[in-house]
Design goal:
The complex is a heterodimer of chains A (218) and B (768). Chain A has 218 residues and is an alpha+beta fold. Chain A folds into 2 domains: 74 residues, no CATH class; 132 residues, Sandwich (Immunoglobulin-like), CATH 2.60.40.1240. Helices cover 19% and strands 33% of the residues of chain A. In chain A, the strands form 3 sheets. Chain A has a 6-stranded mixed sheet, with no helix packed on it. The longest helix of chain A is centred in the first third of the chain and has 14 residues. By secondary structure, chain B is an alpha/beta fold. Chain B folds into 3 domains: 68 residues; 421 residues, 3-Layer(aba) Sandwich (Alkaline Phosphatase, subunit A); 98 residues. Chain B contains 13 helices and 28 strands. In chain B, the strands form 9 sheets. Chain B has an 8-stranded mixed sheet, with helices on both faces. Classes of the chains: A alpha+beta (218), B alpha/beta (768). Chains A and B meet through helix 1, helix 2, helix 3, helix 4 and strand 4 of A and helix 3, helix 8, helix 9, helix 10 and helix 13 of B.
């Protein structure tokens, strides 16, 4: 079964085939015309000179090509569940619930943020802001990772910045996450309902990861 | 002579140039001919309703998924990022695309035939696959006055209402004179194929070897119908609930070695495609067969999705092998139906970086891999889409008037209250916008379409789904929504001298409605020191039920429910969600158990207006509101004729979709105008090619709000008519131009060379 498939369905997904696809789709007619003219002129205008192009067309049509160029490039070769990498130079932006592998020159760590959880949803009176609780999980540290609530800030769609704190009564996480350990802790802030973005700047200045979320209490 | 000679030279040059110019002119003629509509194609016309020129869309792939609401799928409630974010960024998101009924199967049948839901198809043909009736039961022959060629179940005659007989009495399959979109394609020369994952074979769990006919007798009916090859709706109906062949455990749900379900595949349910086995013996042929040869149910028209010789990837290799229309039914895992998959969910077919693995070791059969988990729901459908859609988009056929359509059969409440999908779980509990009560159920049953340019929350109902109430306002019939997701009053076992049971409704046809739940005992984990009890059986609509059990204080109730997920079950019996709830007092204050809790009992629920002692209100109970449709599912379409990242708010439903396909492929240009009980194959009911309720006057198909780029990216606007058999690859223009230009250059070069030769020769002659 598998060998049969290999024989009948050759793999042709290289980037080179994208240009062929565009030629077929008529996206580069000028270039095609020029190339054809040159080919014909150099080949002495032999009628047989048309055959290679036709054969190439037929050959390409037997295989899948590249993506059509009208599809946004950012949507191609994208896997939604992939773990993003966040660095000082290029912070990761993802959704709450997703993990980010944060890399700095001295350490890396896998960080996941979920939430916020909010109390009192669907009540007759819905306040314009509510208590938000997020859960942060850190693991796979390769070096000592600083852990501080002060390194987390939340910003809403009106650019208001919130500074969450550790949840009272909960065990405080260690100030430093050592390699081989996994920690999970809760952060809390009273935040307006609506769009929000939790940011982590482990050195207190440079953001390396951002998680998008929505505060809802309706 | 010099003058004369010069004159001759000029003449020669002029002649040479003339030849060249004529040659070039020939190019122009050639080009202009090529740009005009080919003579063997009908003159291009504008289909005003879609805004596209005839033949602009030449290849359609419909991928139909299962049982999700727009809210669940496209608002970020779930983790299906590929479908929620990536695909809408490539095309248009239809925010108001509605199913036509509940449950699944009736939607599939409406899509391809315009036939409205009826009780047995609404219930997924879960009892017996018999014929609904003979052709003579197609009502209102040839008329648009009300019934649109709908099939009237003969069983209805025994009903007091004359409509909507109970489950099992109506039949599931339509007789030969009920045409489908595929019959219309046959008559119009449009090629088509129905692909289904696991159809006729699969990789069993733990195996990477494809096995043909994994479960003999499960889908061996014509066109993938349930049962054996001997089964047919007329003389040997398939018993859907028992008497299974060896190895078959279900026809209507997935089993580990075969996740195909016939209820999600429309082809076998129409004898216009399969033909009919007559009681007297000889067969009545189907309405028509493919013009390209073969039969409707042969391997060139009904195929396993991953077949190396007839499957999707094989067919995508060239335009010539790609059907004009491809119907794609993922299996019951990949279509997001099952929360935990019985078999492969394709999770093993991706590289470590999350991209699909198309390497030769996994030769385009993602089921030949070992899954890394068995998670279903929208997680699994995302895997399916991420694997196959890039293949379609890269195919040559997609670049030539392609259209990918990802849709769902029906809506579903956008949160966990039945536990059918982990993807409806969230980390913060239901909000008021997704209430775990009957209002959400009714919303998931709502109907919509666009008539005469107006969005309306309406869809037509056939003779089998009459909506009606009694004098008290109680709904008597399940309607297109089949009373899904809600609890209705019971059927009466006695009406005189008193009603029994006392809360029954005389004459009610309950459809898919549930009963108010009785008391339930759950195995849980809890204890003193925490008011949160872990209960994996808890769902949102359990909120408010009284809780009793060891170490549970009196007057305790279910407070806020939290279903979290997705969990990634590593076995096909694992949990996809974990649940918990807060134990609260009668005034809502948190209550701690007094000791360890391992088991609790939840109170019975009942009609909130007529509670028996010990009952708590049933939030899903409602007796008066109708269920009118299949709910908003949303839909995404991607095409060169659609601007990426656009949105439409226009109301559409499955009937709109059918009308769109009929218009895009101009089925009325087909040749089958033989008179049927109602209408014709090619002309439909309205003479414009529209079947069933797709023929509603004023019904809007997908219009310029969907096909919002009518010139098409990289498309040769209007140059190709639709001719599936001769224009699989359009005649390339550039080789013709190249030949003509090359010939012109040849003439010019020859002429120039001759002149150069003459000048050399003249220069070599002695001067006179």
């Amino acid at each position: 079964m598998r060998s049969l498939v290999r024989k009948t369905i050759p793999a042709r997904f290289g980037p080179a085939s994208a240009s062929a696809a565009e030629v077929r789709a008529g996206r580069v007619p000028g270039a095609a015309l020029l190339c054809t003219l040159l080919l014909l002129a150099l080949a002495g205008c032999s009628p047989a000179a048309a055959h290679p192009a036709a054969a190439a067309h037929a050959r390409h049509s037997q295989h899948l090509g590249g993506y059509p160029s009208f599809l946004p490039r950012s949507t191609l070769n994208y896997h939604s569940d992939a773990v993003l990498t966040g660095t000082l130079q290029r912070p990761a932006l993802t959704n709450e619930g997703d993990s980010v592998e944060v890399k700095t020159p001295r350490w890396s760590v896998l960080v996941t943020l979920t939430g916020p959880q909010v109390p009192g949803e669907g009540l007759p009176y819905q306040a314009p802001s509510t208590t938000c609780t997020w859960v942060v999980t850190m693991s796979r540290a390769t070096g000592p990772v600083p852990v501080s609530a002060a390194d987390f800030t939340s910003i809403n769609d009106l650019s208001r910045v919130y500074r969450p704190a550790f949840v009272p009564g909960q065990p405080r996480p260690p100030a430093i996450l050592r390699p081989g350990r996994k920690i999970s802790f809760e952060l809390r802030a009273a935040q307006a309902v609506g769009e929000g973005l939790m940011r982590w700047a482990p050195n207190g200045r440079n953001i390396v990861a951002k998680w998008d979320f929505v505060v809802e209490n309706d | 002579m010099t003058i004369s000679g010069s004159g001759h030279r000029l003449l020669r040059v002029a002649a040479t140039c003339g030849v060249g110019l004529l040659s070039l002119a020939g190019v122009g003629v050639s080009a202009s001919v090529a740009l005009a509509a080919p003579a063997d194609h009908p003159k291009a016309v504008t289909i005003t309703s879609t805004g596209l020129r005839e033949g602009a869309i030449r290849h359609v792939w419909l991928i139909i998924l299962e049982n999700k609401s727009y809210d669940a799928t496209f608002t970020g409630l779930n983790q299906n990022s590929y479908l929620w974010k990536t695909l809408p960024a490539q095309g248009v998101l239809l925010k108001n695309y509605y199913g036509t009924g509940h449950s699944s199967m009736d939607n599939y049948l409406s899509l391809v035939s315009g036939q409205a839901p009826e009780e047995d198809t609404q219930e997924d043909c879960s009892t017996i696959d018999k014929l609904i009736g003979p052709n003579s039961d197609i009502i209102d022959t040839g008329s648009l006055s009300g019934n649109y060629g709908q099939m009237n179940s003969p069983a209805n005659a025994s009903q007091p209402s004359g409509a909507n007989a109970p489950l099992g009495e109506n039949g599931c399959s339509y007789p030969t004179d009920v045409p489908t979109l595929f019959n219309q394609f046959n008559a119009a020369g449009v090629t088509w194929k129905g692909y289904a994952q696991d159809l006729g074979g699969a990789q069993t769990p733990g195996s990477t070897i494809f096995q043909a006919d994994t479960v003999p007798g499960r889908e061996d009916g014509a066109c993938g119908g349930p049962g054996s090859a001997a089964n047919n709706p007329t003389t040997d109906p398939t018993d859907m609930v028992g008497d299974y062949p060896p190895g078959v455990t279900t026809f209507t749900a997935a089993q580990p070695n075969d996740q195909f379900v016939a209820k999600h595949f429309p082809f076998p349910w129409f004898e216009s495609l399969t033909g009919q086995v007559n009681a007297s013996g000889p067969n009545t042929p189907p309405l028509n067969e493919p013009a390209s040869g073969g039969t409707n149910c042969d391997a060139n028209h009904i195929a396993n999705l991953d077949s190396p010789t007839e499957g999707l990837v094989h067919d995508l290799q060239s335009v010539r092998t790609t059907p004009n229309f491809s119907w794609i039914t993922p299996d019951n895992c990949s279509d997001a139906h099952d929360a935990v998959c019985h078999g492969n969910n394709l999770s093993g077919a991706f590289n470590a970086n999350g991209t699909p693995n198309y390497s030769s070791s996994i030769p385009y059969d993602p089921e030949s891999t070992t899954p890394v988990n068995y998670t279903g729901g929208l997680y699994a459908s995302d895997l399916f889409l991420e694997y196959y859609i890039p293949l379609i988009e890269r195919s040559p056929a997609f670049k030539q008037g392609g259209l990918i359509d990802i849709t769902f059969d029906e809506g579903f409440p956008a949160f966990t209250y039945t536990g059918n999908s982990f993807n409806n779980a969230n980390d913060y509990g239901p909000t008021s916008s997704d209430q775990p009560n009957y209002t959400a159920s009714i919303a998931s049953d709502s109907a919509a379409e666009n008539l005469w340019g107006r969005n309306v929350h309406y869809e037509p109902t056939g003779p089998n789904s009459t909506l009606g109430t009694n004098a008290q306002g109680d709904q008597l019939y399940p309607g297109p929504g089949n009373n899904a997701f809600i609890d209705r009053p019971p059927v009466c076992t006695q009406t005189t001298p008193v009603l029994v049971p006392s809360d029954c409704v005389p004459g009610i046809v309950r459809g898919g409605s549930g009963n108010s739940p009785g008391a339930r005992t759950d195995t849980v984990t809890g204890g003193s020191g925490s008011n949160v009890i872990s209960d994996n059986s808890i769902v949102a609509d359990d909120t408010g039920r009284e809780v009793t059990g060891t170490n549970i204080p009196a007057n305790s109730f279910v407070g806020a429910v939290s279903d979290t997920g997705p969990d990634f079950p590593t076995t096909n019996t694992g949990l996809a969600t974990t649940g918990s709830f807060q134990l609260v007092s009668q005034n809502g204050s948190p209550v701690d158990p007094t000791g360890p809790v391992t088991s609790i009992t939840l109170s019975a629920e009942g009609d909130p207006s007529d509670l028996a002692p010990g009952q708590t209100p049933d939030p899903l109970f409602n007796a008066t509101l109708p269920t009118t449709g299949g709910g908003d599912t949303g839909s995404v379409l991607i095409s060169p004729f659609i601007r990426p990242g656009t949105v439409s708010d226009v109301f559409y439903n499955h009937y709109s979709w059918l009308r769109t396909m009929e218009d895009l492929f101009n089925v009325r240009a087909g040749h089958d105008w033989t008179r049927l009980q109602a209408g014709t194959v090619s002309g439909g009911l309205d003479g414009k090619g529209h079947l069933g309720y797709a023929a509603q006057p004023g019904l809007r198909p997908f219009g310029p709000d969907v096909f919002n780029n009518p010139r098409g990216y990289g498309q040769h606007s209007g140059r190709y008519g639709l001719d599936a058999f001769t224009v699989a690859v359009p005649q390339p223009l550039w080789p013709r131009i190249s030949l003509a230009v090359g010939a012109s250059l040849l003439v010019l070069a020859a002429g120039g060379g001759y002149l150069w030769h003459l000048r050399r020769r003249r220069a070599a002659l002695p001067s006179r």
